[in-house]
Amino acid sequence: MNKVKVSLAWSGGKDSAFALWSLLKDERYEVVSLHTTFGEESRRVGLHGIHEDLIQQQAESIGLPLDKLFYPASQTNAAYEKVMSGYLKELKKRGVSHIAFGDIFLEDLKKYREDQLRGMGMECVFPLWGNDTKSLLEEFLGHGFKTLVCAADAALFEENQVGKVLSLELVQNAKKPIDPCGENGEFHTFCYEGPIFQKPVDFDLGETISKAYKFKTDDGVEHSKKFWFKELKDFVQ
């Protein structure tokens, strides 16, 4: 049977790591590459804040090629969509017909991804979709994955909780009830050890910094949200 060729959207966090692990066990698919989007100026992954050097180190330990996509800062998704459109065209030339994501239950995000790929004649794969998030986290940790909280909503987490290894206890100790996998954006993680890696990813913990983001809701009201970020430094350098 010819396997379906897949490229996985790789954020460096637990959901993309567990999605990859699920795909590698699925005989229907052949994961041929990882791809990660970075800010053009920061060279970091969106709200994870992880530098490309550590993402590259993850990919090398996994043993899959990493395609790096850079896009300029923008108030809309236009720059991101332009970069992704060009990349999807390149993937089609390579014979890749499917893109995999680690999304779990956000319907609007799933639809956005499906619409984007449908326009390119490609399809989405969601290995974790519809699973109970508490059970997913328990299974993730039970299989020996290790990941730390690299960014977190300051309204939900204390400064000293960022940089800690993710556990059920850490999630339960948030200031307010949150989704166990942070699917609503409560926190983001960096996965550094587990069954998908040939060896653990080496890094040093740096300082914790805070950043505030402004955004508008559908009713036009402007809001501000503060996030903690733990600086992770490439141990190799």
Radius of gyration computed on alpha carbons: 17 Å
Gap between N and C termini: 44 Å
- The percent of residues in helical segments reads 25-40%
> pLDDT under 50 segments (min length 5)?
none
Query: What structural category do the secondary elements indicate?
Result: alpha/beta
Spatial strand arrangement across the major sheet: 5-2-1-6-7
Kindly state the number of beta strands: 11
Oligomer: single chain
Q: Which series of helices and strands comes N to C?
A: EHEEEHEHEHEHEHEEE
Write the layout of secondary structure elements.
Layout: E1 4-9, H1 14-25, E2 29-39, E3 44-45, E4 50-51, H2 52-62, E5 66-71, H3 78-93, E6 98-100, H4 107-118, E7 123-125, H5 133-142, E8 146-153, H6 168-172, E9 187-193, E10 203-216, E11 222-234
Parallel strand pairs: 1-2, 1-6, 2-5, 6-7
Antiparallel strand pairs: 3-4, 8-9, 8-11, 10-11
Give a written overview of the molecule.
By secondary structure, the protein is an alpha/beta fold. The protein is 28% helix and 32% strand. It contains six helices and eleven strands. The longest helix has 16 residues, at 78-93. The radius of gyration is 17 Å and the shape is globular. The mean pLDDT is 94.
